[in-house]
Amino acid sequence: MTIIDVHGVVDKLETDQEKYAKALTTCGKCFDDAYQIFNEPDFESKKDWRVEIDTEEVKVYSKYYPFGNVFALKARVPASVEAAFKTSYNDFESMPTWNSNMSYAKVITKLTQHVDILHYANPDVMIVKSRDYVVGRLWRKVGHQYYCTARSVELDDLPETPDHVRGEVFLGCGRFSPVEPDPNMTQVDFLLCIDLKGMVPKTIINAVLGKMMVKDFEETLKRHNEVMANSN
Known about the structure:
This protein is α+β, with helices and mostly antiparallel strands. It contains four helices and twelve strands, in the order ββαβββααβββββββα. It has helices at about 20-40, 80-90, 95-100, 200-230; strands spanning about 5, 10, 50-55, 60-65, 70-75, 105-110, 115-120, 130-140, 145-150, 165, 170-180, 180-195. Strands 3, 4, 5, 6, 7, 8, 9, 10, 11 and 12 form a ten-stranded mixed β-sheet that branches. Strands 1-2 form a two-stranded antiparallel ribbon.
């Protein structure tokens, strides 16, 4: 039986799910890697990070690590931390209907209460052909913060097809933190480290990833506002 223990919460596979053992352990390792970056001494100040995009609503930074270039987005959402997290996490399969960055989204299987495997695709962006990704996703609540992390996994029954280039997500992570003293404001911090694969110039990759992160946030913010309006 495959088991992971992440921040005191145990996820274990049922006997008939053992084929996903590597995916589960990958999710645990991804969470550890992301949590370490989020809690680095200079993460909040972004002292050693390069500014990629700086607007009034959102900021995107980048920093090179031994495993690749990590992009970090920082912004605020007018919603409680629980609502902000749930909208981002629970609405995954509906994302293509409200997020133009997503052309396909499906939950392949749910392994535990905190872990599932996703398959999604982006449309063509600039000169970059559509990419698809298969990732393991894990979430935790640590103190008053919610964390959600994702990393590429391999599934024999989901091979690459001619329709998309199979990209690799090393880190796709979000942290949702309450903004004191306002209970209806949440700070979101997203990390992204992706290998798009294929012959794509580095300058194009940097431009595409930064813009994708901002577009994702803008679309998610619209979704939050719609959800909040419909709940009133």
